[in-house]
Amino acid sequence: MIAACVYLMCAITSVLCAGLLLSKYRRSRLRLLFWSSLCFVGLAINNVLLFVDLVLVPNMDLSIVRTLPAVVGITLLVIGFVWDAE
Prior knowledge:
By secondary structure, this protein is mainly alpha-helical. The chain is built from 3 helices and no strands.
């Protein structure tokens, strides 16, 4: 039960962070905020899928499906860092 609450709080936190980063990007148009918000969108999807995988459907293994959005998000952030460093 406590684990489910932690997974849910992590999902909510990452969704809120993604939303805040996106809203700040819309106001300032800083590219680093754009890449960071894309990363957090991927991490938010990952956390939501983690909650679904371990709490809602514990008899199914969604580990590959839930890991892909996090990998894509981190990859986009690295691309953004490299692109803005030039």
